[in-house]
Amino acid sequence: MAMTNTTTTPRLILHRAAERGHADHGWLDTWHSFSFADWYDPQRVHFGALRVLNDDTVAPGMGFGTHPHDNMEIISLVTEGSLKHKDSMGHEGVIQAGDVQVMSAGTGVLHSEFNPDAGHRSKFFQIWVFPRKRNATPRYQQVSLDPRDRENRFQQIVSPDPHDAGTWIGQDAWLHLGRFDAGRRASHPIKMKGHGVYAMVVSGSALIAGQELQERDAIGVEGSGQLEVTAGKEGAEVLLIEVPMELNN
């Protein structure tokens, strides 16, 4: 009797940095990995529960005025400078480079974000993930993580468990950030069956899932039990976003 081959070939989606949506508003220079605002690509609306990955640069002293959100898990990862946050839940403070902020918008929240430094730009990733359940109570969290914990390994920065390392959101999703020396290899296991992982090279270059990626290139991988990463000759900083591929709302 012939044997049936049940091996599944992982599905790859390659997104080059220059292929992202782009808008320069003067005060805001933004790149969109997925359809956002005036940029729409029917092939790039979301990756599973990952709806938005914006790469934003905010000019000195400028920012986003008060605006609403609802039913979205919003993660801000500041990579340069700082952002001043204020919201309708009563939270007000400054998010520094290296900090991770989570805002579970739930039933609805108003907030604003400004670059409080009049002399230097601010850079951050704005990440939106569809929630597990709609109309949850809005929630805010901000943490400072030790960057040494991501040297040549992946540091968890977001998970679905409020008792776990980093911040937490109302979705079965994990975010990791790693900084690797030239040639270093890392194997990252996928947490849950049916999940995919979207990996972006924040800086440097890397070989991920067999694909050579440069700075701000990204790849979505679905149907694999683990992700293989090898840093390029200049090293690499890599952001991993693991999400369910099926939406339940």
Description:
With 249 residues, this protein is mainly beta. The chain has a single domain (11-244), classed as Jelly Rolls (Sandwich), CATH 2.60.120. It contains no helices and 20 strands. It is globular, with a radius of gyration of 18 Å. The relative contact order is 0.18.
Mean pLDDT: 94
Order of helices and strands: EEEEEEEEEEEEEEEEEEEE
Strand content: over 45%
The CATH superfamily turns out to be Jelly Rolls
Short description:
By secondary structure, the protein is mostly beta strands. It contains no helices and 20 strands. The chain has one domain (11-244): Sandwich (Jelly Rolls), CATH 2.60.120.10.
Please describe the topology of this protein.
Blueprint lengths: L10 E5 L5 E4 L3 E5 L17 E9 L4 E7 L3 E8 L1 E6 L4 E5 L2 E6 L4 E6 L7 E8 L9 E6 L9 E6 L7 E2 L5 E7 L4 E5 L5 E14 L2 E3 L4 E5 L3 E19 L5
Parallel strand pairs: 13-14
Antiparallel strand pairs: 1-19, 2-3, 3-4, 4-11, 5-10, 6-9, 6-11, 7-8, 7-10, 9-12, 13-15, 15-20, 16-20, 17-18, 17-19, 17-20
